[in-house]
Design brief:
By secondary structure, the chain is mainly α. The protein has 17 helices and no strands. It folds into two domains: 214 residues, no CATH class; 190 residues, no CATH class. The protein is globular, with a radius of gyration of 22 Å.
Amino acid sequence: MKKVIEMEKNKERKNVIWNMLGATFNSFNSLFFTIIVTRINGLNDAGIFTYAFATACVLYNIGIYEGRAFQVTDIIGKNTDTDYLYHRIITCIIMLLVSIIFVLVKGYDLYKITIFLLLCVFRLIEAFAEVLYGVLQKNGRLYQVGISLFVKAVIGIICFVILDWLTKNLIFAISSVILVNMLGILLYDRKNIKQVKMTKSKFEWKANNLIFKAGFFTFILTFLSVYLVNASRYAIDDLSTNDLQTIFGIIIMPATFMGLMGQYIIQPALTKLSTYIKEEQYRPLKQIILKLLAVLLGIGILVLVIAYFLETPVLGLVYGIDLTPYFVSMMLIIFGSFFYASSMVLSMILIAMRVTFLQAVTYGVVSVFATMLAYQIVQQKQILGASITYTVSMIMVTTIFLGLTMGKMKQYKRLWNKEKKNENINCNSNL
């Protein structure tokens, strides 16, 4: 018995460590890519790259549709693993079509279109891999997900640096990363999937429609949440220059760290959250939510203090650009990033509770507000305006999500207490 418990603890420890490593390197890919492109290719190309990468991240949410959290917390189990796989193939095709339509509507030149579409293909491959990761996570193999993300990220960065340094050509560099990710799926992820018991079924439109319907509001909220983070970029693209696009991409990059902290905290807890909800365990559910938010608050305060003293000189040194004029904007972004990470954690909790419609409405309303604010204030205040838009919108979303979570917890408490009372009454009557 002790050996079994110890094995489970070791497995959980391994899941947490590899998930952290994989998520870290995968999330910081854009940071490393931006540094490389800024240093080797210059501000103009870096502006094109950061904008295209950010937009590819928005469209990526079409590819993943409802996301891994929805798949992993499928407590009803109406859909099989292969249903999710077939569904992911369809959403990836839709993602590619939308990407092509977007660049044609925007009327970019051939170079910008090529960079944009290559980055969309890169993110498309990652979106497909996510459905495989969902299967592995459900089977307690989150560490294999972390290893996959870590290896593909590290090799991808190395290939990108070498090719971009040798050729000064972003097209070749991005293509190498695409190849690395394709090989990662074929040589590593596929092997891992064969080791688990996938629930299989034949392709049926009915099953796919069920996933589309069940995950619709989750898709809307995840899509809009990523759009909201990047709303200022579109205002900069239309109203300013590629150089300023690069500057904003650099100062918003540290916010990725806080988003990453949110992932660290919530991903390993998703299965427990789902179990507590399913088994109607109110106290453990409340405790884990409070613990998650408390840890995030502590990290947020620490990051804000460190950023105040070190962010400007460190980022300036890394990118080779004087960022002193943007100090206020950078601190605003860091402050807003705490609310961004909090909204991510609260959103995942609400998804586990299947509160998706109200989240989608929240993101929809705040996205409209942020877009209007961005196009007005960016024209006047440039980078500072973009930072204000980001921070205000993150505070709004987090405040509303906190209210929704508290409301849902009160509902659970009333419902579960009522059920216990009914059970006690039935037991007494039987006696």
